[in-house]
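ok so for the tutorial part 2 we go from a plain amino acid sequence to predicted structure tokens. step 1 is just haveing the sequence, like this:
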Amino acid sequence: MSFDAIPVLDLSRSQHAATKPAFLADLRRALLEVGFLYISNTDINQTLVEDVISNGKAFFELPDEAKLAIQMKNAPSFLGYSKLGNEITAHRTDFREQIDLSTPHPLPAPTAPLYHNLLSPNQWPDPSILPAFRPVFESYITAMSHLATRFTSLIAEALDLPPTAFDRFFDKDQQHKLKIVKYPDVSQLGLDNTNAPGQGVGPHKDSMLSSYLLQASPHRGLQAQNLAGEWIDCPPIPGTLVVAIGQGLEALTHGVCASTTHRVLSPAAGEGPRFSIPFFQGVSYDATFESVEVPLWVREKKASLGKRRDGVEFTFEKGRWAHLGEATLWNRCKSHGDVAEGWYPEIWAEIQGVKKGPSGIADKTNKEDAAVDEGGVGRPLEVAQDATIKVH
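step 2 — the prediction. this is what the tokens look like for a chain of 392 residues:
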């Protein structure tokens, strides 16, 4: 059965013995049947949320030179500012500008694996211009890290596993990421005279464990793809976060918790820009592709639901990569060609098809291989030729 709405779960129900079993049953249905859900009553301080939204919006009001001083291509970490139209998803330009941040890490050692370049310091805007920006977002990342850890233990319990089942896949100083994103409306993009909606970000799946999206303006545009390939709206609901299951969790559960394809449409002409602030819970980049042993009855329940029509291939597959960090780095390079070309020329050449990719398989990047058509219904998962699995 294909979902036609995104479920809303009250997280406070998980804190009481009388309501927790029903909460876990609802969570299990959301994980197995949807892969997308809202959570309310998260206990994140509302004043902090308001400060995050106001400082996030203020960032995009900075002069171009202030934003370009911290642009992503300055460093190999894929952290920093990306200007409008500088990212590709499903072979089309994403019309958004953004800044990527993460939990703080020092520069990696020269002998560290190449994918440890993802573990690096942030590029922060000038504190003399935005003095509250860094402390506000460091506080929010810390608060969201605690929430994500707590919610992951509930995911484990919903799958009839111990609450600590996923702990071994996290580093002691685990990296989590965050984006602040602005989606201009189509009139600001020169698209208001066309019938096609603008692509805020194209059909994709998140590449980390799970993501927690703060929809920071009242605009619609976020959509999730159901089992039949239909696009289901995920409008803003005040006081909630949207949770999306990522490729990392799908890999760790052998597909029981499937990552759901989603996209963002640009706001209509005259609506003004849409803002969103997604937080991405990470998994150790050094993790190999082992998995937890989900109980048989849960796996049978998942199998009974049938397969999805899905245009985004699952590429975090065992055998293609030795470590999750290699897959993550590859997918970041696919999304941000300017960073890849400057810092990872060999990977970029593979992505462009100049060389064969991992395991001798050439990566196909021409538009004819696009896995999702413009109508939004993709080819079945087992025959998808290309993919966008990314941190969005």
